[in-house]
Amino acid sequence: MTDEASVLLFFIDGLGIGSRGPFNPLDGLADAEPLAVFSGEVKATVFEGVVVPTDPRLGIPGRPQSATGQATILTGVNAPLQLGYHKQGFPNAAMRELISQHSIFLQLKNAGISKATFANAHRTRFFEKRPRWVSATTTAVEAAGIPFRTIAELREGKALFHDFTNEMLSSLGIEAEARSGAEAAEILVRIASENRFTLYEYFITDKLGHAQDFDRARVKLKELALFIRELLSRIDFRCTTVILTSDHGNIEDLSTRNHTLNDVPTIVWGANRERIAAQIKNLSDITPVIVDTLTS
After folding, report:
1. Which end of the chain has the least Cβ crowding within 10 Å, N or C?
2. What is the DSSP string of 229-275?
């Protein structure tokens, strides 16, 4: 790879590869590509993306969960194997230590890749009072001493909220202009163009899965799919690889509010998509393949 090679990791919480049927809001949903991936059906998607069914169970009994799934994605370490079980919610002390030692941001920093960033903006209260519980992402970013983006930067077009439309911020009384998928895509493309590694995370999907809100799920999935297509239409795939993945299934089966046992879709776009996709089998493969792509 050349010095200009870059990777954008697009993380979606709670998106599995489900079966078609009345409980899957993606079934029959128009313009849902590339999110509409169904069990046993698709190996390729829009913009010549390669779809890889990816194991989030990691050899540990029980339903995959957010804390261990995200920690695994962001470190390359099988977190549920280390912990002995799938941990929901936020990482505990042992997991925070694991992430701090093996964070993808720290691995890249130690390899001389200085331009790495988290594209999401944190609300002001995060900086005013440290939350008792922090996410795997927050821990991974802090491990490398990378600054967090602010709401002020979001207003300047230099960051995105996890709800890229800013609808949620407005509902919380935080001033922020509404953004279309195209406008959000322009911002994320610009951030990715300025960095060797960029992480963006979206977790409304998991919330809707737990709520079993079928109608709202269809609205948000279509909105998210459009955002991703707008993003892909603007990316220069000659130098940038885009990897979309998830930590566990949820929204693809609204017959239950629980996480599923389904594989998750990892989708790879870019000039080296076939080589990268061939190296991914489970969530612990994500960080190693990104580090290899940026350091080879």
Report:
1. C
2. HHHHHH--TTTEEEEEEESSB-TT-TT-SSPB---EEEEEESTTHHH
Distances (CA, A) of 210 to 161, 200, 240, 249, 250: 21, 22, 34, 11, 7
Q: DSSP of 172-183, one letter per residue?
A: TT-------HHH
CA 242 to chain centre: 11
User: Which residue(s) pair with 117 in the sheet?
Assistant: 198
Contact 6, 240 (CB under 8 A): yes
- Examine the pLDDT at 124 and tell me if it is beyond 70: yes
Q: Where are the alpha helices (DSSP H) in the chain?
A: 66-73, 79-83, 93-102, 104-110, 124-128, 136-143, 151-155, 167-171, 181-193, 204-211, 214-234, 273-277, 286-295
Q: Taking the CB of residue 171, how many other CB atoms lie within 10 A of it?
A: 9
Structure token pair of residue 171? 């509902």
Task: Grade residue 117 by pLDDT with cuts at 50, 70 and 90.
Answer: very high
Q: What is the mean pLDDT of the chain?
A: 96
CA–CA gap between residue 186 and residue 195 (Å, rounded): 15
Is the separation of the CB atoms in 53 and 17 below 8 Å? yes
pTM greater than 0.85 (yes/no):
yes
pLDDT at 3: 52
